[in-house]
Structure formats: structure tokens, C-alpha cells
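Notes from the 1:1 (GR / supervisor)

We went over the backlog. Supervisor wanted to see one worked example end to end before approving the batch request, so GR pasted a single chain during the call. The sequence is below; no edits were made to it. Supervisor asked that the structure be written out right there so they could see what the output format looks like.
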Amino acid sequence: MDNYGDDDDQFDALDDLLDLGGDDDGLENDPSFADTAEETQTTTITHGNGLSNLDLLTRAWISERFAPELLPFATDPVADLSELMEYQVCVYLHLADAEQTVESILQSMELERAKFVLRSYLRTRLHKIEAYVLFLTVPQNKDAAQNILSAAEMQYADQFGTLLRTHLRDTVTKHMMAAMQAVDEDSEFVKMLPKPPLDTAVFVRVMTDIGDVQLPEDDLPVHMKRGEMYLVRYIGIRDLVLRGQVELL
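Structure output shown during the call:
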């Protein structure tokens, strides 16, 4: 899955998930805008854990790229960073004719870096949604999908899944006997749903002292300490990834 982010056809879907257009009409009418613009915020507001919005989103982006399945949506970093970036776009548009300083140039570069990370994060998730949309949108998996997708992503998955099922029915299955027309059957004998390959080998770094962990491929537990790195099957450390005890590399 190294080619996430290379498909320009997903731009429209990205725009639906996130709008960074920079409409500043409302801000320009705000009396405090002119004063606030002189002290532009940055995209690196630091939280209590010492990590900024951008740091948190970058971690989520890297993990998403290397995880074989969709991870829970990074709601707070995306929402906070999107709001701050939208404000900064408005500030730069408002001050476009002003003399640029080194500080403003650096802030502009930081804004572009944050926009790249955010768009790449969303595009990576869209790629996985499209790859596993039949699996995500069957009734038995719908509740689980809603727990890891944002509202916009869930809507996109539903619409994309409907289009895919309609296309398969109109082009293929309607010409077959009734017993063979299903496109998302998942039973003991027939498995038609593309599922995430959870047995994929991944590199991980331990973020905190965990202790003994029993991996599926080992007879003896592995004692994991902070800072150590391992090459393991994803299924064996899946829970640790979801709890933030290890990060994917």
C-alpha cells in the first residue's frame, strides 16, 4: 500500500471531507480580525502531552499508511488543525499585500506542510475505504465501521458501496443464475468480501514499557520495552496499536 496519495481522482472526495478554501468574508467583518492577524497563530499548538496538533496528526498519518486496516479516525487533531488552518489561510489572504517577513514566510511553509499531512491522511483513508467498501458496509459490519469512520467517511462509504454493487449487478451478476448473483456473500464456504490482510508483517516501535506480550508466531512471550522496535504480524499487536502503546513505522 505504498501508493496511497497518488490518485488525483480522489480530490473531489477530499474536498467533501475537508474544505480549506480560505473564505474570509466573515473574518474580515470581525472587528478583532485586523488586530489578531498581526499575531498569527501557528499550526503547532502544544497539548498537555507535549505534542502539537500537527505532531498528533503526523503520528496518525504514519500509522494509517502502514496499518493494513482502517484505524479509528483522528477526530480531535483533524478538527483542531482544520479550524486553525482555515483561520490562517484567511489571515494570509487578508495580509497578502503586506510586506512579508521571515516569520510570515516560515508560518506559510508550516501551513503548507500541515495541509499536505492532512490531505495525505484523508486520501490514505479514502483508498482503504474504497478497497474494503463491501466489507465495511455489509449490515454485520456497519456498527464497527461507524466507530472508526468519520460521519463524512461513512457517508462516502455508503454511497461508494451502493455504486459498486449497482455496477457489479448491472454488468455481471444479472446475467447469472439467481443463486450466484450476490456480490457480498461471506459464509463458511463462500467468502466474497475483500478484507484487510491482518497477517501482514509490520515494523513497530514501543512507545511505553509494556512487559510480556504473547505473539501468535512465538512460543514464548516477548518482553517489550520503550524504544524497542520489532517486525511482527499486525494481528499480534493490533490491540497495542489501538491503545497507542506501539506505533507503526
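Supervisor's comment: The mean pLDDT is 79.
Batch request approved.
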